[in-house]
Please model this.
Amino acid sequence: MKILGENDRLPAGSTVATIGMFDGVHLGHVTLVDFLKQQAAVTGKQALVITFLRHPRQVLRQTEPFRLIMPLKDRLEQIASLQPDLLLTLDFTAELAQLDSSRFIELLRDRYGVTELVAGYNHRFGHNKGETFADYCRNGERLGVKVVKAPEYLGEYAPVSSTIIRGLIAAGRVVDAMHCMNRPYSLTGKVVHGFHNGRGLGFPTANVGEVDPAVLLPHNGAYAVLAHVAGQCLQGMANIGKRPTLDNGDQLSIEVNLFDFDGDIYGEDITLEFISFLRLEFKMCGLDELKRQLSLDRDNAKRLLNEYLTNNQS
Model:
């Protein structure tokens, strides 16, 4: 697969394309790209996936808080795993947003050789939100570009959308989000120094900092996780929150206790895969209650992680 930038040009009549944000690269996206590749194979063209560097909401509604499921690097890697022939990244700008569907189809035809545009099942594009799929087809026919609709994902976890997955993650429902994406929700940062309270409790933790601020965090609470750090995949439990029992103020922290591990990983990149929700964060009566609860959390996390790994052995 070849990755292109918006300044690249493709030969006239060379591609069948689809376009979208692909945030989360979920099972609906898999259905879409599979259909795209089928259409390209039938016509002898190259399958082109077009995605945006920035989400339209980050450009058009800058005053409204909005978080993505995954950073750009991860999104491109996951799209690449679906094996289209070409992947094009476009910067979504205010100027691009002003194009109606006709002008947009014309741009795709003239710059990127698109002869057929595969629209996601419920995807809309172009400035005029009142346009229907029939309008897209008429505009495409006039410009010599066939517009077809991809089939809807109708699998076990339907309906699936990026909006639904964001809601699941924000609610802490990481198992449901995992089903929609066919892989765990993950978060990447760097191991940094924190309050160092965990070791005194018998549960040393690695603080995860330098997380992309554009990425969505799960609901505050404790989670069973797999941690990828220093070339290892380790089992652990993570807490997202403000540590109310230890009175560490209002600063949000992400901490992970790695099971059966006591190495020095400060400064290392770390990726957490959220396998299961354990409990909400709450203030306990004291350190003894906190230690008892952490012991219960650890036992529960180990059980859930072992079940997950057993069920997902290749």
